[in-house]
Design a protein that fits this description.
mainly beta, about 0% helix, globular
Length: about 120
């Protein structure tokens, strides 16, 4: 199994920046991709950004050009730098890993609030 611990998040004004981090432990050799999803109140959990071990990156259209995902494969950490934040970015952000066998593991989530 894989355990995920997220850090970062909080409250920021529109146009501001935040950085999320996630560290994996456990059976980390099984990890293929790491990334972030988010769930706004009353909505489904959606992809934000993911990155495979080979460096393939996928961003949601709504965050392209504003968010940047990065991984440290040696430490099995993933970060999400969020710039030019908008009120619609308000959500609980979840770290997720996917293994080579198709298993998904989730962190507990961290709240990001963008409000003036």
């Amino acid at each position: 199994q894989v355990q995920l611990v997220e850090s970062g998040g909080g409250s920021v004004q529109p146009g501001g920046s935040l950085r999320l981090s996630c560290a994996a432990s456990g059976t980390i050799s099984s990890i293929n991709s790491m990334g972030w999803y988010r769930q706004a109140p009353g909505k489904e959990r959606d992809l934000v950004a993911t990155m495979t071990n080979r460096g393939l990156i996928n961003y949601a259209d709504s965050v392209k050009g504003r968010f940047t995902i990065a991984r440290d494969n040696a430490k099995y950490t993933v970060s999400l730098q969020m710039n030019s934040l908008k009120p619609e970015d308000t959500a609980v952000y979840y770290c997720r890993t996917a293994t080579y066998r198709g298993m998904n593991y989730w962190g507990k989530g961290t709240l990001v609030t963008v409000s003036s």
